[in-house]
Amino acid sequence: MSSKTDNIPKRDLISRINFLLQAGMLINRNCPPSLLPLSSLYVREAKSCAQKSLVKIDRSIKRIVCKNCNCYLIAGYTARTRVKTRRGTYFIVTCNICSHVKKAKRKVI
C-alpha cells in the first residue's frame, strides 16, 4: 500500500526548490553582505526551476522576495518598510539593494 506522501507528483523538484529557498534565506541571514549575490542566485534558480516544472511557489515566499533582484526582503537589513494611510493603509517595502518598491494594501483591524 502506498501512503499519501508517496503520491505527490514532482516530489524531487519540490524538494529541490524548497532546499534552494532555505539555503538562500540561511545565507542571507547568517553570512556577510558580500554573499548576498549567492543568496539571490539560489532564489533565482528556485524560481526558474519552479517555472520550468509548472510548480507554484507559495504566496508568502513571493511576498518576502524582491522581484527585481531576487533578494530576501528582511526589514532593517535588506529592506525598508513604511506605512502610508491614503485611501486605506498601505505597506511600502523598498529593497535596499536595487531600490525596487513593493506596495501592498492591508486591512486595519
Automatic annotation (TrEMBL):
The keyword tRNA processing applies. This is Uncharacterized protein. Signal peptide: none annotated. Keywords: Metal-binding, tRNA processing, Zinc. GO terms for biological process: tRNA processing. GO terms for cellular component: nucleolar ribonuclease P complex. One of its GO terms (molecular function) is metal ion binding. Belongs to the eukaryotic/archaeal RNase P protein component 4 family.
